[in-house]
Amino acid sequence: MIPDTPATPSRAHRLLEAIRYFLWLGTTGFGGPVALCGLMERDLVERRGWLDKAQMRDVIAVCQTMPGPLAVQVGIFVGYLRCGFWGAWASGWALILPVSVMVALLAMAYVHLHGLPWLTAVVYGVSPAVIALILQSWWRLVRLGMEDRFQYLIATFSVLATLLLPGLLTAVFLAAGLLGVAWYTLRSRQHDASPRLHDIASLLLLAKLAGFFLVTGAFTFGGGFAVIPLLQKGLVQQEHWLSAADFLTAIAVGMVTPGPLMSAATFAGYLVAGAWGALVCTIAIYLPSFLLVMFAAPPLMRHRTSPLVQGFVKGVYAAAIGGILGAAVLLGGHAIDDWVTAVIAGAGVVALLCFGIGSPILVGLSACVGLVAFQFLHPDWVLGQ
After folding, report:
1. Phi and psi at residue 115, to the nearest 5°
2. Is residue 92 part of a domain?
3. Is residue 188 part of a domain?
4. What percent of the chain has pLDDT over 70?
């Protein structure tokens, strides 16, 4: 007797499976984009068989060529391949929702407790640790994607632009991509390379926030940490929506919660415009990722080895590397202003690079050091921020 063939799950069943899985991953997925992609490959390829290894590698490779948070885009793409259009939207928001709720609650607590001495002491200790985390991520990205002298030249100009001409940072990213296209296309030909709401003012503020975070989400090449210089330029330097201390706190929260660093946008949106601000900023910064995956990923899947695509990605990646380092220097000027914060930052870099300590542990230890040291030093420069 021939055994019955298991019925193929219906699209509705596959959609519910995807939602459950990505809600779980968004709640428990610590470790950054590489770790999250590794978890998806283990769970969805090896255990569940939703994709084969080649498909998963192609999905990750294509998402790496697009701006936005890598892990979120991989989740959107997997949902698209598994359940079509609605699968992409459902999978992506299931992955984003848990951390967005966590970060919004933390932002509410931060606003409610703002000005209390113990919270000021925690921020005092955590801020230099954030600089250490940014530098660690910068170093990992350098080792991962910087391949030649031309990329280092672009990165050097990007550092200088971040420090001296922050208002032109987006233009620098675009110019770097176009230079990459020209340089690497030429090389490939030479070497035959292979292929909150009360009134109109509140509405205008929300619209301005939405526009800023839409543009930011569309130009974040190089992984989640590449968003830091763009956010720092707009939120702190240009619009003055956040102080440097508030911005560092937002980045710290994004680092110690599961999911992508872009969840810092939820925190920043709440500080600027309350709950409506958090909602608008969350949607705006992730919306480009959904649109890119559904409309740009299919042709990129076919042409991702093109010298034009590869050249643009390499150029923008190098600019992102320079932008991250420049942002670390600028933010370091606000976070490090005495020997205690200098020691926290230096020890944090060593602990991260040499001993592999996790981000939540480093932030927790730094907060404890800040609580103790603040009682003895009472640094005026922190109280004045």
Report:
1. 100, -15
2. yes
3. yes
4. 91
